[in-house]
């Protein structure tokens, strides 16, 4: 019986998955934090504010993190995730406006 070493690509995939999970968690936190302050916001404005915060690596005083590149698709995916989880809701009659 011969034991084979663990494949390198498996470790790489795990690292990539972990990085994506961390990115999603940061995006979800940014979305909820922005909406907690604003109470309601148009989805487009929310996406732009989250992307801006990601590029700057900060969200107001006292909230700093490592900046990273994110795209509108990433942010919209997290918004849909938070909507499905019940953390966010759409306004009646104005589905493009989100509330926390």
Automatic annotation (TrEMBL):
It comes from the Eukaryota. Transmembrane segments: none annotated. Residues 19-96 form the Cullin neddylation domain. SUPFAM superfamilies: Winged helix' DNA-binding domain (SSF46785). This is CUL9 protein.
């Amino acid at each position: 019986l011969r034991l084979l070493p663990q494949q390198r690509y498996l470790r790489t995939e795990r690292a990539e998955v972990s990085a994506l999970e961390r990115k999603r968690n940061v995006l979800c936190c940014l979305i909820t934090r922005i909406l907690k302050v604003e109470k309601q916001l148009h989805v487009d404005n929310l996406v732009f504010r989250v992307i801006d915060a990601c590029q700057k690596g900060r969200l107001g005083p006292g909230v700093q993190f490592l900046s990273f590149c994110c795209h509108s698709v990433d942010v919209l995916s997290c918004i849909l995730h938070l909507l499905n989880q019940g953390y966010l809701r759409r306004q009646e009659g104005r589905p493009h406006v989100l509330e926390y």
